[in-house]
Write a sequence for this structure.
DNA sequence: CGAGCATTTGAGTCCACTCAATAGTGGTGG
DNA sequence: CCACCACTATTGAGTGGACTCAAATGCTCG
């Protein structure tokens, strides 16, 4: 089952799993589902939602305001666990929509709760995965609160590049990226028009280009310096439980 | 042990705990500590940090940027669990500083990991608590990304009021609040000068006052309408595990 | 090959910023 | 006990980054 390798590998870097843990985890990959681009996989107010493990494709999680505005919280790429919070809360407090066509495994609330009863190391690994997600949200908060538009865009591209590299979906100088400028705007607290201008600046400064659904880094170090990007919140220190 | 009631009560609304769970949880309250105002309880880069359960006083968690700017992620009030993410990651990715004098219980990494091995329902409850924290961070993200300065301030006061009410630290028309305008600014992605102007506007519009370390609501419904505040992300639906 | 979406650019506006200066407040020590 | 110092709050003036509105161009896919 090659599609489960990304998540499993991530978890193994954190906790050494027993045979029982591995077996329990394997059950998470039983229910294969696919979704069309634009499909709402999870929606605000949904009761007893499922979670999913992304095998291929991109999604994004977001909240809608009364005004109709949208704030994107995070993007999900292959290997990511999505909707965990929707399981822990009886009713989901956010939406998740497929950006591209998606292949995923559906994980039921009962799968998770069983894992907690019978596979404590796996449970620890899941809590760790949730904490890592929270660390990403925190970094996005810093991005919105204290960085300029140029810095925000640069930071987002570097984060996505790093995350995709971890699952082998990057290449020498960049990565394929199905986002629109509206996605970037709603993730970064900017208007789409301004995102467009910022992209032009970054391109003209020889830092990155984002065109034709591809991000290409031209000056990786320059981008890091500009945005203050530090991989700390994505990196691992080696297993907590051996 | 009256100081443990707030957290324990919160957890019990989510998961019915067994006697063993309760006993394990009780161990979290063994190591009583106190800290002076301004003390750094947890700092970025700290290895093998402890977590804490706040008995009294306020703290705030934040990240520092290379530029020296500060982004406050959340405020912690009595009953809150703080530093959980510092335990799951070997090295802490954020700082937590005491705002007032603090009484707290220190929770070691081993306490948490033991709980995961031996008390699965408690483990589930801890994951739920972590998810609730993440939901708050997400709401702060929405605040920064898509709300105006007036809306942000109003939203923060409503959230703090609601959280304090849950632990009985509010009163008829407001709550005691040890924050400075600099704290508000760094939590809301604004300058302290602008926060001051916004507070004047809200006061002159008869909505809230924030003076002399006290927040007083004058038009609760008006504030809610202004900020689009919805308690959903703080509320509970009743126990997931019975 | 049009229809709908996405991108790009211009013009003008405004929200929140910075810099600067003045009060108020509380704690400390001589 | 009061003088002082550091911190916090307040207000004014001027600036600028990001916004909105508007229009033109490009792209893709049914």
């Amino acid at each position: 089952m090659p599609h489960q390798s990304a998540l499993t590998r991530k978890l193994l870097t954190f906790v050494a799993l027993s045979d029982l843990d591995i077996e329990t985890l394997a059950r998470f990959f039983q229910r294969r589902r696919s979704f069309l681009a634009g499909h709402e996989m999870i929606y605000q107010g949904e009761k007893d939602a499922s979670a999913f493990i992304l095998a291929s494709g991109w999604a994004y999680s977001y909240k809608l305001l009364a005004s109709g505005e949208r704030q994107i919280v995070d993007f999900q790429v292959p290997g990511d666990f999505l909707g965990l919070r929707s399981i822990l809360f009886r009713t989901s407090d956010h939406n998740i929509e497929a950006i591209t066509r998606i292949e995923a495994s559906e994980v039921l609330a009962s799968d998770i709760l069983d894992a907690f009863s019978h596979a404590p190391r796996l449970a620890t690994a899941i809590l760790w995965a949730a904490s890592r997600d929270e660390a990403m949200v925190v970094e996005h908060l810093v991005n919105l609160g204290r960085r300029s538009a140029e810095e925000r865009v640069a930071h987002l591209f570097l984060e996505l590049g790093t995350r995709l590299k971890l699952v082998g979906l990057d290449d020498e100088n960049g990565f394929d990226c199905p986002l629109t400028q509206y996605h970037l705007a709603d993730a970064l607290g900017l208007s789409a028009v301004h995102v467009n201008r910022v992209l032009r600046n970054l391109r003209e400064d020889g830092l990155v280009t984002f065109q034709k659904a591809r991000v290409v880094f031209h000056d990786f170090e320059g981008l890091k310096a500009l945005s203050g990007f530090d991989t700390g919140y994505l990196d691992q220190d080696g297993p907590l439980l051996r």
About this structure: Residues 69 and 186 of chain B are 8 Å apart (CA to CA).
